[in-house]
Amino acid sequence: NAGVMQNPRHLVRRRGQEARLRCSPVKGHSHVYWYRQLPEEGLKFMVYLQKENIIDESGMPKERFSAEFPKEGPSILRIQQVVRGDSAAYFCASSPGTGNPRGDEQYFGPGTRLTVT
Amino acid sequence: AQSVSQHNHHVILSEAASLELGCNYSYGGTVNLFWYVQYPGQHLQLLLKYFSGDPLVKGIKGFEAEFIKSKFSFNLRKPSVQWSDTAEYFCAVKTHGSSNTGKLIFGQGTTLQVKP
What string of H, E and C letters represents the secondary structure of B66-113? Predict the structure, then answer.
């Protein structure tokens, strides 16, 4: 039973480049959450998506960041024109959603560590 | 604003010592509470959770936590730690309300180092 998969595990980008982070949820899970962990800080919520819908993007920076979860394929977190301050670990989590007794549990992936040089 | 506070940032214990990690949250309504653990080089794993019922919750690997509603606290405990418990521990809260969309609010984490 595969868990949440994220790739790449490590990503190095130069300032101004684009970063694309992928997340494949647990099979059968229709809810995906993205969190960011800055050095010496806890995880901070960024965005919550269901298939083809953004439900809550209250934690997303207003510019340069976008996320999608298409009908087919992984969820993508896209950061355009990266800056040094974007260097962080980005974690994806998935859950079965409402109507499932374990619907409130979120299962986390291993994270993508983004370094901007 | 809703927030979660973990009082201890770095804890060092010897094997067999008892552990208690503090967690407090700020929200007056209904909450679900979680403790996650992140072992070195690994992803976050759920240790235990509280949804309702008995406020004393038992999790994996001998961990337990007690929800004290009047104190807005959910402290993590283990009677006797092992070297393999060396990890980072995160407390998280999910609030219930009209604006709730399922997101977790995390504390800043506590790094536990257990000396053999």
Answer: EEEHHHCEEEEEECCCCHHHCEEEEEEEEECCCCCCCCCEECCCEEEE
